[in-house]
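Late entry, written up from scratch paper. The run itself happened at the end of the previous shift, but nothing got recorded in the book at the time, so transcribing now.
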Amino acid sequence: MTDTPRLPEGYEISTDTARIDAERVHQWLSTDAYWALGRSREKQDRAIEGSLNFGVHDTLSGEQVAYARVITDRATFAWLCDVYVDPSVRGKGIGTALVAAVREELRPCGLKRIMLATHDAHGVYAKLGFRPLERPDHWMALVQE
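Output as recorded:
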């Protein structure tokens, strides 16, 4: 397993859902994240309510600068999704540290796998031990449009 990257000084990670800036998260995802463009605020709020949420916050201002959520039973499986870092703080290692924090938070659960899907961030996730599916032909999806 790879080393656990740390957040830059001046930032902290919280799993306290009460600290999530739901309006900001919705704005980020519904307008700038290819996988969630046009997602309604109501749908985003439901997603937050039903998930394990991670926020990265500026320690001085309290402003949220990144987000990730996990759908999990905390026993056998987890789906990491909606990972987003505000453009103003990209390139500082915040996204890598955020995903590492997710990995570490879930480690005690003894999950067999943590899944995710990405179009363009394979390198970020590979640094943290994620790899392509060995047998993608074993996986299926029910897509309901």
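The beta strands are 11-14, 52-58, 64-72, 77-85, 113-115.
(Scratch paper discarded after transcription.)
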